[in-house]
Amino acid sequence: MIYIIDGYNVMHAMEGDGGLRAGELEEKRRRFVEGVISHAASMGVKTIIVFDSAQARASKSHSIQGTPVTLKFASAAESADVIIGRLVQQHLAGTRQRIRVVSADWEVQKGAMQPRVERIPPRHFIAEIKNLEKRVAKSTKKDRIRWKLEHKLDVETLEKLERLRRGGR
To answer: Strand, helix or coil at 85?
Structure first.
C-alpha cells in the first residue's frame, strides 16, 4: 500500500480555524512530517507528501533517508493537486498496490475515484497519527523507541535537510 498525502490540506485540517500562520509554517510542517514518518514506519507503507509552493520555479522531490517517506514540493506553475493526480495514475499503471489518497480537496478526491484507490479524509488520517503517538507515549519501551527524524539521521544529514527546507542547496 502507498499513501499520497496533500500536505498543506491535511495540515490545515489539523490546525482547524486557527489556520497556518507564515511565521509558524516551517516548524508545523516539520512536526507534521515527523508524525507522517512515524505513521509510515509503523504501518510499513511507502508515503509521499505533496506540498504546494507559490515561489518555486520547478518542482522538487527528495526521499527522507532511512524512512519510507518522500517529500514533493510543487512549483508555482503546477499545483500539488496536479502532482497528486499524476502520482495516482503512475502508481495505478506501475503497480498492483492499493493507494490511499489523503485530502479534503474535491478535485483531488474526484481524481482518486478509481479502483484500488481509497480516499481518506484528513481527520481520519490525523486520528491515526494521534493514536500512534498515544501508543508510543504509553509504551513501556518508550525510552528506547526512537521515532523522531532527529533520532534517525546523523547531524550532517539533518543540516543538509535544514538547508533544503530553507531553499538553499
So the answer is: helix
